[in-house]
TrEMBL record:
Annotated compartments: Mitochondrion matrix
Protein name: Probable electron transfer flavoprotein subunit alpha
Protein family (similarity comment): Belongs to the ETF alpha-subunit/FixB family.
Family annotation (Pfam families): ETF, ETF_alpha
Binding site for FAD: 225, 251-252, 265-269, 282-289, 303
Cofactor: FAD
Biological processes, Gene Ontology terms: fatty acid beta-oxidation using acyl-CoA dehydrogenase
Electron transfer flavoprotein alpha/beta-subunit N-terminal domain segment(s): 21-205
Cofactor note (record): Binds 1 FAD per dimer.
Domain of life: Eukaryota
Main location: mitochondrion
Lineage: Eukaryota, Fungi, Dikarya, Ascomycota, Saccharomycotina
C-alpha cells in the first residue's frame, strides 16, 4: 500500500545523484497526463536516474502514480496553489532554483504541451541555456532528433550545454506504463518559490466531452473544409466517431470557418497526434495539417478531389461524395 505517513518528508535542499534527469509532469484530476508519461519514456531512454517534479493541485495524489513509474528514484512535490494553472511566471522560478541548487541534474525534460512550451524558454533565458524543442528521438545523452520545416525535415542535434533542456513530443514516445510493484523512490516536498509575479490567473473555460481526449486517442476522425458547414460537420462526423469510439479533430480551415472549436484543430498550429487510425474527411492535406498527423499508424483519406495532397500520405484513399460515403460507412460500421 502507498503510505503517505512513511513516504513523504520535507528535506531541503533536495540532493540527487550525479547524472540524473529532472522531468516535469503535468497532472489532471490527480492523474499524470499521457503527454507527461511519454516524457518519462524519453527520460528513461537517456539512461540516467529520473527525478520527477509535480506541482499544484492534485500533485500529491499523482505522486502515488509516479511512485510506480520505471527509473523514477525521486519525486519532488509542491502543492502550493500558486502552481495550480502552470503559469510560466510562477513555475519558472521553482525550476530554475532546482536546477541551480542541484548540479546533478544533467537534463530537464517537459512535455511539448502548452504549459511546457510556455515556461521552458523562460528557464533557458534565465540559465543561459538553449532549449531543444519537440524532440522525437533520443540518440544519446547529448544528441537528439527533432522536426523542422513543419515536419518536412528532421534535424539531429547535439547539445553542448551543461544542462540540456528539451520538450518532448508526446506522439513520438509511448506513455510509460506503471510497474506492478512500487519502486523505492523517495518523495520530497518543496516550498513555493517567490516569483515577484504580477500576472494573475482570472478564469478558464474547459470544453468537456465523453469522447477520448484528442491528444491521446487511438482513433481520430477529422473533418475539413470539404464538409461545407457546421451542420454537415456535426451530422456526418460525430455519428461516425461514436461508432468507432473515436475522438473528433479538424483542419485549421474547418476551425476558421466556424465548424468546430479550435481545441479540435490538428496541425502545426494545433495538436500534433499519432493515433493508430486517422480518418481525414474532406481534408485536402495542406502541409500545416500534415505536420500534425502524418505519423499516424494508418491514415484513411476520403475526398472528392483525387489530386488532393492528403492521398500522398494516406494508406487508404477513397474518392467520392462525402454526403454519400460517410453515412454509408457509418451505417455499415
Amino acid at each position: 500500500m502507498f503510505s503517505t505517513r512513511l513516504l513523504f518528508r520535507t528535506i531541503r535542499p533536495v540532493s540527487v545523484r550525479l547524472g540524473s534527469t529532472l522531468a516535469f509532469l503535468e497532472t489532471a484530476g490527480g492523474q499524470i497526463t499521457p503527454a507527461s508519461l511519454s516524457t518519462v519514456t524519453a527520460a528513461t531512454q537517456i539512461g540516467d536516474p529520473i527525478t520527477v517534479l509535480l506541482v499544484g493541485a492534485g500533485s500529491m495524489e499523482a505522486a502515488k502514480q509516479a511512485y510506480k513509474l520505471p527509473s523514477v528514484q525521486k519525486i519532488i512535490v509542491s502543492e502550493s496553489e500558486k502552481y495550480n494553472h502552470y503559469l510560466p511566471e510562477e513555475v519558472s522560478p521553482l525550476v530554475v532554483k532546482l536546477l541551480k541548487e542541484n548540479s546533478g541534474f544533467k537534463h530537464f525534460l517537459v512535455p511539448a504541451s502548452t504549459a511546457g512550451k510556455n515556461f521552458l524558454p523562460r528557464v533557458g533565458a534565465v540559465l543561459d541555456l538553449q532549449p531543444l524543442s519537440e524532440i522525437i528521438k533520443v540518440v544519446s545523452a547529448d544528441t537528439f532528433v527533432r522536426p523542422t520545416y513543419a515536419g518536412n525535415a528532421v534535424l539531429t542535434v547535439k547539445s553542448k550545454d551543461d544542462v540540456i533542456l528539451a520538450s518532448v513530443r508526446p506522439s513520438a514516445f509511448e506513455p510509460a506504463a506503471e510497474e506492478s510493484t512500487a519502486t523505492s523512490a523517495s518523495v520530497e516536498e518543496v516550498d513555493y518559490v517567490k516569483s515577484g509575479n504580477k500576472t494573475e490567473f482570472i478564469s478558464e473555460k474547459l470544453i468537456t466531452s465523453e469522447r477520448p481526449d484528442l491528444s491521446s486517442a487511438k482513433v481520430v476522425v477529422s473533418g475539413g473544409r470539404g464538409l461545407k458547414s457546421k451542420e454537415e460537420f456535426d451530422q456526418l462526423l460525430y455519428p461516425l466517431a461514436d461508432k468507432l469510439n473515436a475522438s473528433v479533430g479538424a483542419s485549421r480551415a474547418a476551425v476558421d470557418a466556424g465548424f468546430c472549436d479550435n481545441s479540435l484543430q490538428v496541425g502545426q498550429t494545433g495538436k500534433v497526434i499519432a493515433p493508430n487510425l486517422y480518418i481525414a474527411v474532406g481534408i485536402s492535406g495542406a502541409i500545416q495539417h500534415l505536420a500534425g498527423m502524418k505519423d499516424s499508424k494508418v491514415i484513411v483519406a476520403i475526398n472528392k478531389d483525387e489530386e488532393a495532397p492528403i492521398f500522398n500520405v494516406s494508406d487508404v484513399g477513397l474518392v467520392g461524395d462525402l454526403l454519400d460515403i460517410i453515412p454509408e460507412l457509418t451505417k455499415k460500421l
